[in-house]
Amino acid sequence: GGSASDQEQFFAVPANQVWTVLEKALPTSGLRIKKLDPSLMRVEFSSGMTAMTWGQNFVATIQPGPEEGCLLKIGSVGKFPGPWNRSRSMKVCNDLIGKISSALQS
């Protein structure tokens, strides 16, 4: 296995709204959807290879929050072990969360 990394982000909007934005943001972020389950609000996707990594596999879920809103959780694992996987995974997650935040604000 590779190195694992997890990130979470709370959004003060309904879960189905974040799900719709997430579905649209993945392909435009250069990420490949592997498995999509709208009923569970769960998606598996991957990033491609870079000069430093073989790519990462990700799982994102959206869960209704305790307050008005929802929690986006993104877990990632590098396809092959290496210290650079964690920083690359964090960049992919941060970029995706940024895209979702921007789309929700517009």
Walk me through what this model shows:
The protein is of the alpha+beta class and 106 residues long. The protein is 34% helix and 35% strand. It contains 2 helices and 5 strands. The chain has helices at residues 15-28, 84-105; strands spanning 4-11, 32-37, 42-46, 56-64, 70-78. A 5-stranded antiparallel beta sheet has the order 1-5-4-3-2, covered by helices on one side. Helix 1 packs across helix 2 (84-105). The model has no long low-confidence stretch (mean pLDDT 86).
Summarize the helices and strands and which ones pair or pack.
Blueprint: E1 4-11, H1 15-28, E2 32-37, E3 42-46, E4 56-64, E5 70-78, H2 84-105
Antiparallel strand pairs: 1-5, 2-3, 3-4, 4-5
What is the rounded Rg?
A: 13 Å
- Discrete helix count: 2
The amount of helix comes to 25-40%
Structural class, from secondary structure content? Answer: alpha+beta
Short précis:
By secondary structure, the protein is α+β, with helices and mostly antiparallel strands. The protein is built from 2 helices and 5 strands; from the N terminus they run E-H-E-E-E-E-H.
Which features does this protein show?
five-stranded antiparallel β-sheet; globular; single chain; 106 residues; alpha+beta; 35% strand; 5 strands
